[in-house]
Write a structure and sequence with these properties.
With 301 residues, this protein is an alpha/beta fold. It contains ten helices and twelve strands. It folds into two domains: 209 residues, Alpha-Beta Complex (Spore Coat Polysaccharide Biosynthesis Protein SpsA, Chain A); 75 residues, no CATH class. The strands form two sheets. The chain has a nine-stranded mixed β-sheet with strand order 3-2-1-4-9-6-10-8-12, sandwiched between helices.
């Protein structure tokens, strides 16, 4: 099997049906979808049950998305694990695009896709990209990337995920920055392919987005920095790359989600807790101006 889609679900009764429908509408059929009910207290469990054998339903008490994804990954049969949230949307050609990219580059460790955004209340699904030409950038590994890459659409080879011990055993309160942690753990294991276009999924904007919790994410980034200092992601080799990655995420979060939202003390706390890493990130950003841009590779349809 090519893909195992891992989808934690917690109190998303109004969104999860559309998310599942977008997976079931995929043109590429060699996949399985795990839906992990993370102790929902609304009608999410009933919505999931209504899909019967179309999905693989797992249930657990409320332990957070990392534990939920670890639970599904332990049972997954796919060569690649696809991160998917229960309020997001996959375009019908998403898995087909991912399969073409994987086939073009052998067995990359990581694929990173771009996402469109759409607002809650839109009656129709987000409009599909008209241009389906696949344009990618190839990096030797994730920590070698030379341009900002979001974390909204992550696909990781299962053998690499297993080799690094999967995700943390965090809680429903401490799971924040789970994607950043994973990317640091697999950051040097093999090829990373950034799919510049087309966008393969869409991110729903609504009042319950986890990114609304600026303090939880800021604390998560500080904990990420502390884990790096404790050697959780490796030794001296590639330390500067890891520092730059953490510092870049911290600086962006401090400015866009804390300072501009009026959380000035929180922004200063985050910058203080990650200061050497932010400095490294700013240095790397300046030096990139003197390097040639990464090569954009166009794949044949």
């Amino acid at each position: 099997m090519r893909f195992s889609i891992l989808m934690p679900v917690y109190n998303h009764q109004n969104y999860v049906g559309r998310a599942i429908d977008s997976v079931l509408a995929q043109t590429f059929k060699d996949y399985e979808l795990f839906a992990v009910d993370d102790g929902s207290t609304d009608l999410s469990a009933a919505v999931l049950a209504s899909y019967g054998t179309s999905i693989k339903l797992l249930q657990q008490s409320n332990q957070g998305p990392e534990v939920a994804r670890n639970k599904a990954a332990a049972l997954a049969q796919g060569e690649y694990l696809v991160w998917f949230d229960s309020d997001d949307y996959l375009f019908p050609f998403a898995l087909e695009t991912l399969d073409k990219v994987i086939s073009s580059f052998g067995t990359p460790t990581l694929l990173m896709g771009t996402m469109e955004r759409f607002h809650e209340g839109q009656e129709k699904p987000p409009e599909e990209p008209k241009d389906r030409t696949i344009r990618v950038i190839k990096y030797p590994d994730y920590l070698s990337k030379t341009r900002p890459v979001g974390t909204m659409c992550i696909v990781v080879r299962k053998s690499d995920f297993d080799a690094v011990g999967g995700l943390r055993n965090s809680t429903a309160q401490t799971w924040y920055c789970d994607d950043n942690t994973l990317l640091l753990k697999v950051g040097v294991r093999g090829q990373c392919i950034l799919i510049e276009s087309p966008s393969i999924s869409a991110y729903r904007l609504h009042d319950e987005n986890s990114t609304k919790n600026a303090e939880a994410f800021a604390n998560g980034l500080i904990q990420l920095a502390n884990s790096e200092r404790q050697g959780a992601f490796g030794g001296k080799e590639r330390r500067a790359d890891r520092y730059a990655y953490i510092g870049g995420r911290a600086a962006a979060w401090a400015f866009y989600h804390c300072w501009r939202a009026g959380h000035r003390k929180l922004a200063l706390k985050l910058l203080s807790g990650t200061a050497p890493m932010v400095t490294m990130a700013m240095t790397r950003k300046f030096l990139r101006k003197f390097r040639p841009p990464a090569e954009l590779i166009v794949l044949e349809s």
